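request received
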Amino acid sequence: MSDDIRGMTAELAADPDSLIFLELGEALRRRGQLDAAFKVARTGLGRYPELARAHDLFARIFCDRREPDRAFESWVTALQFDPSLVSAHKGLGFLYYQAGDLASAEKHLAYAGQADPDDGGTATALERVRADATAAKAAQASVGAARVEPAQAEPPAATGDAVAPDDVMLPTIAGAGGLAFSFDEGARSPVQEAVFSGLDGGADGLLLVDANGLRLGGGLRNPDGQDVADSVAALLAGVSKEAARTTRLLALGDWRGLSVECGDGNLFLSAPSDSTLLLTVRGLDVPMGRVARFAERASAAARTWLERAE
Amino acid sequence: MSNPVQLLERLSTVRGLRGSVLVSAADGLIVAESLMTGVDGRAVAALAASLMNRLRRATECAGRREPVFLQLQAQGGSVLATPCGPDLVLVAVAGPDANVGLARLEMLEAAGKVA
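response:
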């Protein structure tokens, strides 16, 4: 343990209300001690649940743990408490870029760039996003032009317009007093969006299982980062039938959901269809009510996918 | 360990609860019960214990700690369960109008006393 970390740990122990947990958590994260960083952040967040920087720290830890969905949620929460938090805008810009949503990535990075013009990393990232967006639009335009008859083709000027920057409203620092973007609780993670538009990805914390305990989509990792999706899927086989049997015998009607509080996380099981089960797993930082709402949206996405697959 | 029957009777004062049972986790047999007429205690006991055991294995496999509380939500009410140490499970049946939040707190407190 370095002297810095030892000193900060001692300071936090002496004064558990100290905001030193933010620096300590970040120092541990940078050293790759993610479990320790997570514990420090979680404890701090418990004391300061409305502190945007605490949610930001959580998000960075989730990123390092390769849990982009949860990082997204934490950064969205951070911006709910402080819409001008630059690091959260940078983080969301990064996640949107990874998910291929270049317009949203540009919005966040542009905001971060205006707030901190000396940050060369943000400027470089923004250039890259804009270049990719321009290239993507050019590619679309060329495909479109190749498909239309010459007589119907748009004039070059119009084609040029198609690749020009669109009407994205870049936020300004002056507008930081209010919400620069719409960060409502129902915001969807771009990662989740990608997985549940095709269910062939490996989203962590969402697992769609069939009646035989086989994974249909999504993914699940344990806190050490190991893939446990298939083994958990196998153990969930039969839960749906058992839940249905229980509620039927007690004359409670059809079951709608099964929430499970663990000592270190919240789980929610729902049934997108008669023959499938969806497991949603979130940390204790996400209240069960929000987990249930998230699970509802994921169930709807799974139903859509199942209907398409059939 | 407090008197289980007294604890179950105290639970039955929570609005909307139709009763509760203390169940052996290993075999799903009833240890103590306080149920309204018409609620099948044996079914509650066996199925809730089975569900709890299954979820215990799943959460363990997922690298999570043991379940501390579960709620099976249905159209006409809920089944609530919490482990009381390694050997027992406290299960309650709640109607649609039950105060589940209060029931949860009372059950966790009761489980602590039973364990």
